[in-house]
Amino acid sequence: MDKTKIGLIGLGTVGSGVAQLLLDHGDRTARHAGRVLWLEKVAVRDLNRPRDCELPAGVLTDQLDEVINHPEIEVVAELMGGVDLAREVVLRSLAAGKDVVTANKALLAAHGPELCDAARKHCRTIAFEASVAGGVPIITNLSQCLSANQVTSLTGILNGTCNFILAKMHSEGTPYGQALEEAQRLGYAEADPALDVNGADTAQKLAILAHLAFGARVAWEEIPCVGIDTLDVADIQHAQQMGYVIKLLGVAELTPDGVQLSVGPTLVRRGGAMADVSGPMNAVHVRADAVGELFYQGPGAGQMPTASAVVADLIDTAAGRTRVTFQTLELWSDRSSRVEMADPKMAVGGYYLRFMVDDTPGVLAKITGVLGEHAISISSVLQHEASDGSAPLVIMTHDTTEGEAVEACCDIAALDCVRSTPVGMRVRG
Amino acid sequence: MDKTKIGLIGLGTVGSGVAQLLLDHGDRTARHAGRVLWLEKVAVRDLNRPRDCELPAGVLTDQLDEVINHPEIEVVAELMGGVDLAREVVLRSLAAGKDVVTANKALLAAHGPELCDAARKHCRTIAFEASVAGGVPIITNLSQCLSANQVTSLTGILNGTCNFILAKMHSEGTPYGQALEEAQRLGYAEADPALDVNGADTAQKLAILAHLAFGARVAWEEIPCVGIDTLDVADIQHAQQMGYVIKLLGVAELTPDGVQLSVGPTLVRRGGAMADVSGPMNAVHVRADAVGELFYQGPGAGQMPTASAVVADLIDTAAGRTRVTFQTLELWSDRSSRVEMADPKMAVGGYYLRFMVDDTPGVLAKITGVLGEHAISISSVLQHEASDGSAPLVIMTHDTTEGEAVEACCDIAALDCVRSTPVGMRVRG
């Protein structure tokens, strides 16, 4: 049986998992690839660091070039993480005639166009199933399985750390800071979890999915993005009382004005599949014109789920499927910008609004009056008893635009009877 | 741009949907295939039957040969249904050098080995995404996305008609016959729904999935199979009281003794994703050694969801991905029988047992005594008040084997205090 020689760059959590699958399950990968996937070289920064997988003698190296310029390695898996050096590694690998597999969403979100152009220039391919939603094969599903469809919306829980923290806040009323600490203790959250909890990680993944699903060329930094790091557990409790749970959603919707994109804590009705996504799981809901609705759920991170996606890419690349897909999809090529990003102010939806208000007569009238001025109609109201002379007033609205909701909140914040900055979140059926 | 000429055989519900996608969305299919998918000919039995899609002049024919022996048609989509003539059409198409796409699970379940051998002999391919779970791309996910994994179990709601009927029985206490009538009125159930409701349809689909996931060569008729047509709404109510819903599940599990396969109404704990699969939806839960657990949900039937899967296959076939996959998977080849079917008697699990018993002292002791003799331990008991001197006694067991459960039920049925045939169903966490 023919061999395809593989080089890995990086032997951290994911790299070790990939090495393990290649070394322990050669029969399996060979059966699916129609050829042996041979782990030829693994480049690491520090040869002496303890590793949780054993490599055959001669495989480990601290010289990048021994992978990138290895004459027989055909596929390089970039599993080092980070952006700048990873970009260089991918570009040099492509230039050296290697196909590339990467799990690096930050790299793709930042340099997708440059890397894909380089791949095309050198007649090579880039595969990146593991970059979004870990073990959930959403990349292949969007770029291949749903190819008879125009996707019309895409809603995802794309960050397992945030979903774990939110689940903790919901089930035990744990405040954000404490839930984050627990996520770190359990290994779900990074030592520096900033990019997870501020929504940036979700926005990067959403930018990739939106490109696949809509051909949208979006800089992830332009996606309106709110994290969970400012979320008050009180809002979780109010949402629960009204039959909702709060999830950090990345949403992309095709509208007549372009693709509406947003990332933020969102109220999701209890009882639906998205509301039930538990712990560190990821999920993606896709609506498309032929198939209707599809829902995918699975592990969004972790060593072996991510390695599963990387090795599937290695198999597809070795077997020749990636070549077909990469060629036809024309990822991030000039030709593929089929739709623009819509004005976020025009995003339509229901809102959850919470105001801390004085416990004085006429407050509800004033606030609902302002909402009325902005043509925002109210779906339900929840007002608890006051303590210290103020009380939370929760208002759920019918569909309005983001622009009107924000303006109304500004006007309401300026009222004398309102004590702190209003809280606003999108609501999804 | 190059063209791939397509021929359809059959222009019923699915065929019309496929024609519509090819005719109305040529830009979309061409973008994904890297070439134009050109609908050249459609063969039907009766030219005069009214159709719900308009074809260009010259496309429709009542001569099979105009498709099968068309010199320029490269891919034939068999969408006529049935088994015998469909088998002939596929064999003749392959012999004439055409790649084949089919949505016909009955055909594959009956003749998969013969058809795939013929395809290999003629160096052609067969793609069949639409044959299982309609719009849910489970075939591609198993044969491609999860290729780094050994699947260890596979649980599916694979028949939308049954799921609709069960949902109706659950939500409204509608008896089976009445729920079936409603499914027929709404177009979910066929005029002759026998193969749906007796579980045969699910068993055929499960046989295909088990072959993909485990390499098991199983005749679908050998899969132990119970339908929903004998299900008593009383058992649905008892299950609900104990926190479960009843779903018609197809289950395949890898055990040390081979693949355990079964189809039957099964108690599924409320609150999980599988329990929430509503109406005519399909769902598949996959457990695999690298990725862990994945859950897919979507429309299991219907014109456009099924057409979405067929056209994805046409695109994959025209683009060249199907060739790679079909070659490496060696479907139903002699080489691929990697695992045998396990003895159904050895299937391990919890059971729901219901006995109609006399309302006399000592009955519970007798019945639990028999269970004890079979080393079956009890997890919970539910006994309602008697009417007419008899009462339903519901017992949920801890894990036991199918063999022990069946023997125990036989022994219990022979007791004087037991009035009718015991009811037994598997329970899944």
TrEMBL record, chains A, B:
Enzyme class: oxidoreductase
Pathways involved: Amino-acid biosynthesis; L-threonine biosynthesis; L-threonine from L-aspartate: step 3/5; Amino-acid biosynthesis; L-methionine biosynthesis via de novo pathway; L-homoserine from L-aspartate: step 3/3
Signal peptide feature range: none
Family membership noted in the UniProt record: Belongs to the homoserine dehydrogenase family.
Record GO terms (molecular function): homoserine dehydrogenase activity; NADP binding
Matches recorded under SUPFAM superfamilies: ACT-like, Glyceraldehyde-3-phosphate dehydrogenase-like, C-terminal domain, NAD(P)-binding Rossmann-fold domains
Record gene name: hom
Residues at which L-homoserine binds: 190
Keyword terms of this UniProt record: Amino-acid biosynthesis, Methionine biosynthesis, NADP, Oxidoreductase, Threonine biosynthesis
Residues noted as binding NADP(+) in the record, renumbered to the chain: 9-16
Domain ACT: 352-429
Active site, renumbered: 205 (proton donor)
NCBIfam families: PRK06349.1
EC annotation from Swiss-Prot or TrEMBL: 1.1.1.3
GO biological process, one term: threonine biosynthetic process
Catalytic activity: L-homoserine + NADP(+) = L-aspartate 4-semialdehyde + NADPH + H(+)
Pfam assignment, any one: ACT
Organism encoding this protein: Pseudobythopirellula maris
Entry binding sites for NADPH: 105
Protein name (Swiss-Prot/TrEMBL): Homoserine dehydrogenase
